[in-house]
Amino acid sequence: MEPEVAELKQKIEDTLCPFGFEVYPFQVAWYNALLPPTFHLPLPGPTLAFLVLSTPAMFDRAFKPFLQSCHLQQLTDPVDQCVAYHLGRVRENLPELKIEVIADYEVHPNRRPKILAQTAAHVAGAAYYYQRKDVEADPWGTQHIAGVCIHPKYGGWFAIRGVVLLPGIEVPDLPPTKPLDCVPKRADRITLLEGFNFHWRDWTYRDAVTPQERYSEEQKAYFSTPPAQRLAFLGLAQPSKDTSSPSPELPFTFRPKKPQNASRARGWVSPSVSPPTSPGP
Asked: pTM value?
C-alpha cells in the first residue's frame, strides 16, 4: 500500500475503528468500471476512496452510546443517524482535506442510489459480492435472484455503511485488492443465494462462513423491528426537540421479532432492476 494511502487509512481508522467500523481503500475507477455511466461517481478515476462497514461490535461501541448521549430526530432511522455522526467525525478530524461522504442509504431526487454499496465493497476487497452469474448453470430459471456480500470474518453479520471520497487525492499506483472468495463451491453458493432470497428471515444465510462474531440477540431484535417502529421500540417514539437535556434510559433487554429486510444496495449486473439487497443491517 502506498505510504500516503496507509497514512490516511490509519487516520480514518483511528476515528472509526474503536466504534466497530472497518475501512478499505479503493480507486473510483475500479468502481466505475463495473457500472453503466448512470451510476458512476463523477470524479477522476484515480481518486482515492474508502469503503466503510460496520461489524457486530458497532451496536455496543457506537449505537448504544450514541442513543444515550444524543437526542434523535423524528422520521430518521436511529442507526443511520449514528452512522452519519461517526462519518461526520472523519471530516471533522481531517479538516485539511476535502472530503465527501456518501451514506449507503442516500439517493438522488429520482430515487437512484448515490452509491451501490455492495459493488463498492467488492472492488475495495472488503467482502465478496456473490451474484447469480457466479453460479454455473444456475437452477433458477426465470426467477430473479439478488446478490449478497459475504465478509471473510463476519459472513453476513455486518453492514455496508457508505464511502468516504477524497477529491483531489489521486493514487494511480494503488494496487487493487481482490475480495476473498470464501464461498468457492457451486453448491454452497446456491445455498447462500437461496437462503438470502427466500429464507432471509431466519438469518442463516449470514453463516455462509463460520463468523468470528455474530449480532447479539438484542441487536437481532432491534434490526428485526420494522424501521417505522424502531423509535418506539427504543422508548423514543416522541424524542424531545431540546438537544440540551439528557436522553432517557433505554430498554436494552429486547424481545426478538420477525426479521425485517432493511437492506439497500444494488449490484453491477443490472442495477436498474435489482431490488435493494445488502447484508445490512
From this structure: 0.84
